[in-house]
Amino acid sequence: MEQLGRRERKKAQTRQALADAALELFAARGYDQVSVKEVADAADVSVTTLFKYFPSKESLVFDQDSDVEAALVASVRDRDGRSVPQALRDHLHRRMSKRPTDPEIGDFARVIAQNPALGDYAERMWRRHETALAHAIAAEVGAPADDIRCAALARFALEASQLAHRHGDNPDLLDPIFDLLENGWPF
Questions:
Q1: Are 132 and 69 in contact (CB under 8 A)?
Q2: C-alpha angle with apex 85: 129 to 96, nearest 5 degrees?
């Protein structure tokens, strides 16, 4: 793993301080009741600096957006002989398994659930991830970038974790969903 230089470490620390301050304030007082200036003050930076790291107030909540997308794409690209659905199931299973042990996830989910604008932002973010994932799948299997089967698999894979969440938030619920994606309808 490549070591980050001092400047990169400082930038990463500032970005994380902003994201942490935002989540803490939004969870305590509600997203709409907190200004970007208050977030910047809590992280001990200027509003101008905040906007260098986050282009909008909404993006403060979804600070791991690009990391989530990169991990999805990597799960397809680095699948080690597994099928694409198996690799996606394994990736999403690991991701869902972290939820109960990460206290910030509860705050994150509450903040989003309490604000329709954040729900809309999350939906747009997932659609961007879906497109990137569909392109990664197409590249891996040698299909055209706009192949409908790759787009469908990307959509269904991303919806699988949301469906599992609604039905008990157990990562094992992903198994029958991905079995269906891998093997088709058995009845």
A1: yes
A2: 65
3-state DSSP assignment of residue 4: coil
DSSP annotation of 99 reads: G
Which amino acid is present at 43? Answer: A
What residue type is 19 in one-letter code?
A
Residue in the structure block whose two tokens are 């001990």: 44
Instruction: Give residue-wise pLDDT tens across range 76-120.
Output: 999 999 999 999 999 999 988 876 556 677 788 888 888 998 989
Q: What are 161-179's pLDDT values in tens digits?
A: 889 888 887 899 999 999 9
Q: Name 143's Cβ contacts closer than 8 Å, sequence gap at least 6.
A: 137, 149, 150
Taking alpha carbons only, the member of 77, 70, 74, 73 closest to residue 140 is 77
Mean pLDDT within 114-127:
90
Specify the residue for token string 């394994």.
90
Q: Give pLDDT tens digits for 29-79.
A: 999 999 999 999 999 999 999 999 999 999 999 988 999 999 999 999 999
Q: How many CA atoms lie within 13 A of 98 on its CB side?
A: 8
Q: What residue ranges define each of the domains in the chain, with the CATH number in brackets?
A: 6-55 (1.10.10.60), 65-183 (1.10.357)
